[in-house]
Amino acid sequence: MVHRMLGRVHAEIAWRLAGVGERGQGTVEYVALMLLVAALLAGVITAMKGKSDGIAGAIVKQFKDTVDGLKPGAK
């Protein structure tokens, strides 16, 4: 009984010292993953700069088409 109570007290103290626990951790990991993908994509586009063919050209073309489609009065 005493051992169980000391375990609960220890867990409560550890949780309070850690702050809010692990709430929001999934969001942080998701944002980090999105930033990693964006950096990788930017690296591919930069490496292929000046070449109109290949994946970089297709990405840039699709991006430009999408942005042009967002302009008021388009289509």
Overview of the structural elements:
The chain has 75 residues and is mainly α. It is built from three helices and no strands. It has helices at residues 2-17, 25-47, 54-70. The longest helix has 23 residues, at 25-47. The protein is elongated and about 75 Å long. The mean pLDDT is 77.
What descriptive keywords fit this protein?
single chain, 75 residues, 75% helix
Topology:
Layout: H1 2-17, H2 25-47, H3 54-70
Helix pairs in contact: 2-3
User: Helical content, roughly?
Assistant: over 70%
Number of helices: 3
**Biggest pleated-sheet summary:** none
Rounded to an integer, what's the Rg over CA atoms?
A: 25 Å
Beta strands, count:
0
* Beta-strand content: under 5%
Average pLDDT, rounded to a whole number, is 77
Order of helices and strands: HHH
Distance between the termini: 74 Å
pLDDT < 50 stretches: none
- Taken from the alpha-carbon principal axes, the silhouette is elongated
Q: Kindly name the structural category.
A: mainly alpha
